[in-house]
Design a protein that fits this description.
Immunoglobulin-like; eleven-stranded mixed sheet; membrane; single chain; five-stranded mixed sheet; 29% strand; transmembrane; DUF2207 domain-containing protein; YciQ-like_C; 23 strands; 535 residues; globular; 11 helices
Length: 535
């Protein structure tokens, strides 16, 4: 198969792009939640205030008592007129009782916490919070400025997407300039001269979404007036900041000397505790390991090596189950008929010895099948759906459970660490990966059944490119009965699908008069901020 290794990589990327998934931590809990979407609509009025309406779509697995929203008010005169409703129904009442379907306000310094009590279990729930931010615009001699962070992911909550829509008193004309604040992948755009739209997907820990907007001085009346031109004020502020920074650096240097000593002592104590636990065990220390170290799932190999699961492991697990006889790929088809790539679930095979993640993956694939047959074209289409993401996350959780069921961890030096036995396995798998990377035409590997066993692990270990040429040189590779030849059609199919996906993505891009990426900043020097989480 031509370009098989290169194209397989695109298959994994295709799934990742469709799902918009950040790398998923391997250790999940049975009680968890994420936010599928946040929409924030902010309207600046001619008095320099800003009316804000926030909509949160929370997805709960397990039982929760509600959510909280921390609104940072620095850079303003605080907030007022707070209202809350749930699932777009009637407003819930403010109360200190902490009863169900009430909310509580707590002020602390420059922050206001909105705590919403709403019992939730295994469901999606929509929370709406509206409020007014007072005196949020700064007025200079030559322009007015809104410099505000609308949200900061302080609690490291999984957030699929967040959008902010900002309306000014007189539209987004040529007199308005703006920049988005946050990671570079975010987009700030002028939407038909009506509002500024900020967009960000897969929001990471402590990432922000905000904007610095300049517009005509006459558009607002505000008490936050600086009697200088904007550039003049910024230059003076920079000089003062430099003086302050010198004094701060001296203090920090002295402090770091003291703190560093404490950190070193704690770190050294942990290292000694780990070394004591491992000192009597004889670990593998070779550079290469020339066979599969153990018959475990490719997903668990990834857990052993770096604690992170990705879509490559999902794909590798399908091939692994095929090797075990639970899945059978259909006979070789014409290269032009990409949409015919499919496999069948095999009935009558004993599943009792399978791990939880394997049983769940077969259950999931059966749900996606039609009479036991799964088309990859259908699988690709379903990958963009919320239900697919939910199933994927559940599969990841089952892999986590497998790791603990196999007693892979011991609590040591303040956290769960690999036991000596599994630390030894980790070293073997790293050596096996090096072996595949450094591979020559070894006679012992010139058999298709050997490559068929290795292939799923090569995918999870991200060394498929290193072995693809060896596989294709193996005698019998092009025979019709060779299942790996059929795997190859998945790679060709993925290339075709990737092109189609990119075309559709481009066509669906919003029609705006101007757009730009975010600055890459973290919100320093901005007003606002604060995040949300469940409890």
């Amino acid at each position: 198969m031509r370009k098989a290794g290169k194209v397989f990589k695109v298959l994994a990327i295709s799934f990742i792009c469709i799902l918009f998934i950040n790398p998923i931590h391997a250790f999940g809990a049975s009680k968890e939640y994420y936010i599928s979407n946040i929409d924030i609509k902010a309207t600046v009025d001619d008095k320099g205030n800003m009316q804000v309406k926030e909509t949160y779509k929370y997805n709960f697995t397990g039982s929760f008592n509600g959510i909280k929203r921390n609104i940072e008010t620095n850079g303003s005169d605080g907030i007022e007129n707070v209202k809350v409703n749930i699932n777009d129904k009637e407003d819930v009442s403010q109360s200190d009782s902490e009863n169900n379907n009430t909310y509580k306000l707590s002020e602390s310094g420059n922050s206001e916490e909105v705590k919403i009590f709403s019992k939730s279990q295994d469901e999606e729930k929509v929370f709406n919070i509206s409020y007014t931010v007072k005196n949020v615009v700064t007025k200079y001699k030559d322009l007015s400025e809104l410099k505000w962070v609308f949200y900061k992911n302080e609690e490291d909550v999984k957030i699929d997407s967040i959008n902010v829509y900002i309306t000014l008193p007189k539209g987004i004309t040529g007199e308005v300039s703006f920049n988005g604040e946050g990671p570079n992948r975010g987009v700030a755009e002028n939407s038909d001269n009506k509002f500024i739209k900020l967009s960000l997907s897969d929001m990471g820990k402590n990432e922000v979404i905000g904007a610095a907007i300049h517009f005509p001085v006459a558009w607002v009346n505000t008490s936050k007036i600086i009697d200088k031109n904007y550039d003049e004020y910024m230059n003076e502020s920079l000089k003062e900041k430099n003086k302050t920074n010198i004094a701060i650096m001296v203090a920090i240097t002295l402090g770091m000397i003291l703190i560093g000593g404490s950190i070193y002592a704690v770190s050294n104590k942990r290292k000694k505790e780990i070394a004591k636990y491992r000192e009597d065990y004889i670990f593998f220390n070779g550079n290469h390991y020339e066979d599969i170290p153990a018959d475990i799932t490719p997903a668990l190999v990834t857990v052993l090596l770096d604690d992170r699961l990705e879509m490559k492991d999902f794909l590798a697990s399908i091939l692994y189950l095929a090797n075990k006889g639970f899945i059978k790929f259909e006979e070789k088809i014409d290269e032009d008929n990409y949409e015919e790539v499919a496999f069948n679930l095999v009935n009558g095979v004993d599943k009792s010895y399978l791990l939880k993640s394997e049983k769940y993956l077969l259950y999931w694939l059966n749900k996606l099948s039609e009479n036991g047959r799964v088309d990859f074209s259908t699988l690709m289409e379903d990958a963009g759906e919320k239900s697919f993401r939910d199933r994927y996350n559940e599969w990841v959780s089952r892999v986590n459970e497998d790791a603990y069921d196999l007693n892979m961890y011991v609590h040591l030096a303040g956290k769960d660490r690999l036991t000596n036995e599994y630390e030894n396995e980790r070293l073997k798998w790293k050596a096996f990966k090096r072996y595949l990377v450094d591979l020559d035409d070894k006679e012992g590997l010139k058999k298709l059944d050997v490559w068929q066993r290795i292939l799923p692990y090569a995918i999870s270990l991200e060394v498929f490119d290193n072995i693809s040429e060896h596989i294709r040189k193996t005698p019998g590779y092009n025979d019709a009965y060779n299942p790996m030849y059929n795997y190859g059609f998945l790679y060709f199919y993925s290339m075709s699908y990737q092109d189609n996906f990119n075309d559709q993505f481009s066509q669906s891009a919003p029609n705006t008069s101007s757009s730009s990426s975010f600055t890459g900043g973290d919100g320093g020097g901005f007003g606002g901020g604060g995040g949300s989480s469940a409890f």
